[in-house]
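Researcher: Good morning. I'm working through a list of sequences from a screen, and I'd like to move beyond sequence-only analysis. For each chain I'm collecting a predicted structure so we can compare shapes side by side. This is the next one on the list. No need for commentary yet; just the structure.
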Amino acid sequence: MPSHRLFLPAPSSAGLFFAALVLLLSLLPASPAAAEANCWCKVQCTFPGADTVEGQESWSQRPDGRNFNYPHSQNEWDECKDYCRGFVYELPLEEMAENRNSCGTVECASNYWLGARPERQGETRRVQVPCGDGADESDFQYAVKVVCGSAGDGDPLHMGGYKTTVNVHNPALEPVRTRHKLAVAGPRRDGSISPFFQGQIGADGAQYYDCRYFHRLANTTALVDGFFVLESQSELDVTAYYTSTDATQVNAIHIERYPGRAVAPRPFDCQDRVAIDLSDPQNWSGPNGTVVPVTALNGSWDANRTWISYAADGQLAGGTYTYQVDFCCCPNGSFSARGTVRSDDGSTGTVTPGGTALFNLPAGNFQASAGPAAPFNATGTCEGSGTVTVQVTNGFAGPSGLSMAGTLTLINGYAGACRTP
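Model: Good morning. Structure tokens for this chain:
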């Protein structure tokens, strides 16, 4: 979706750069009358004992790809407000406060409007940034080089195919909570950065992350060149291996071990913005048993998607099967769930608390030939324990499974069931 971002997300200590940005913001037109069809969002953030920062962003289209048309409907105003709210909650306020040597209550107020003013009051966000140097504690961070995909003319690598797989091992006797993201390198500028995804690795457990997953984080099938950033609350063993090929065979392999570096601790709970991958079978559980990836797809199931079931071959007795993803919303939390679904057989999806409907498929659409997968798009407020729940009805003994593709994004929350403080 076309947009332009004018907010400084994490200013460095370089005063000249910040001054240049402030000058740029001061040159913005007083009223964006030329963008009659745009949704606008203006944010002003106040840092205790430091400067006040302003910025704004605009969007030219609604979520379904249509323009904001004049005269604007209430739905369009509501969608513009939602865009502005998301922008406010994407700002890395703790990092911005740290760069300004500021702590205490950081407050960001927003206004939004369609076309020309008048403005409407939007979301106000407050974050408590703790004071103190935190010298007695640290988390661990690993920045692993990632290269995935086919390189051609104009790419930063020689022509050929490249793959990276990252192995992670937990040497501790207790499970360790983790989070990870992908930062893609751009030509002489920042590339895309995914939100953090939370996870856990068991005692003496081992996991891997491969190119298929990195391409999904980057939302591209093109060459991915960047860094997989993994953070944990205790030290891990992190190793990556790299292979390259020509058209016929592997012609190079390299293995690299990455040491962790100590970083100032940041809470793993109640994060401003955390994304849960609904495509990942590890995030799903349920009362019918243990959810597993389907290793042998049945019949005409869409082979381009990941499927889960209560049996590795997808063969189940008749009945209704429940799949769920647990999450926790902190006070004033909210969620958005967006993506697509296929199922064999019919299925319904909801998000609780509140029972927000995700989708209702009277009959399964497991076949790729049946047309596009069914979309879902739901938002809402929440506090306390929550679940994404999908019930799949298997009419008779035979194949039954679920394929979700998308993301559950939490504002002020975390993945998994709520934990006692």
